[in-house]
Amino acid sequence: MARAAALPRLTWLPATISDVRRESATATTLRLDVDDWPGHVPGQHVDLRLTAPDGYSAVRPYSLASAGGSGTVEITVDTTPGGEVSTYLTQGARPGHHLEIRGPLGKWFVWDTSDTEPVQLIGGGSGIVPLMSMLRTHDAQQHPAQMRLLYSLPSAVHMLYRPELASLHAEGTVTFLYTRQPTAASTRPPGRITADDLRQHAINPDLKPSAFVCGPTGFVETVLTLLVGFGYDPERIRAERYGEGSST
């Protein structure tokens, strides 16, 4: 299922921020201009390095949000309380600022577009970022495989990529699962993802779908248990976890 990942670039490449887009009160998308970017596969990530004038440097990994094969490099950063890198990227970064990236990286948590089986995406919080790359790739290529997303988030104000996901929600591709404060239009009571959510909104396991799950560790472990109980083949499930202090 993950045969076509782009070869990693292990050298640091200079990058210039070309656009800064606020996604929520705490999250920002940065578009980067990178010379000689080899392209990436949806689900991959990059290492990002910032270097201060005194020579101090910090490196953090960030998932790529842009469509694979597009040549566009975008990351979405959610502020980590007390995080020096995420705070700069979400609050201080401006077009024209310079940094370095290394990648693309990752060969396992990637969607191979040569596969045609259905794909179920399940994201919690900022775990939506690599899944958004998959959705954008699917849309850009008008891919024939069925793809759906279950997006778990506290409330609508925490939503990333609102215009795009609202459009996909209207088409029936995306379902929002609010854990704290649902919208007025939501008929589902607030709460964590449940087996009933999968029965109502996930792709039927009889269709032998692949699944990609990304989010906080506790969320991912819960979803994996639910998916297997629902009938998904464990060999067709890919998961990416992050915990406190993560840069996803």
Instruction: Determine Rg (CA atoms, Å).
Output: 18 Å
Rounded mean pLDDT is 92
Beta strand count: 11
* Largest beta-sheet characterization: 6 strands, antiparallel
Q: What is the H/E string?
A: EEEEEHEEHEHEHEHE
How is the largest sheet built, in terms of strand order? Answer: 4-3-6-1-2-5
What number of domains?
Answer: 2
CATH superfamily of the largest domain: Nucleotide-binding domain of ferredoxin-NADP reductase (FNR) module
| Topology-level CATH name of the largest domain | Rossmann fold
Shape: globular
Please estimate the helix content.
Answer: 10-25%
Low-confidence stretches: 1-7, 244-248
Task: List the defining traits of the structure above.
single chain, 248 residues, alpha/beta, Elongation Factor Tu (Ef-tu), domain 3, Rossmann fold, 2 domains, 6-stranded antiparallel sheet, 5-stranded parallel sheet, 5 helices, 11 strands, globular, disordered N terminus, disordered C terminus, 2Fe-2S, Cbr1-like_FAD-bd_dom, FAD-bd_FR_type, FAD-binding oxidoreductase
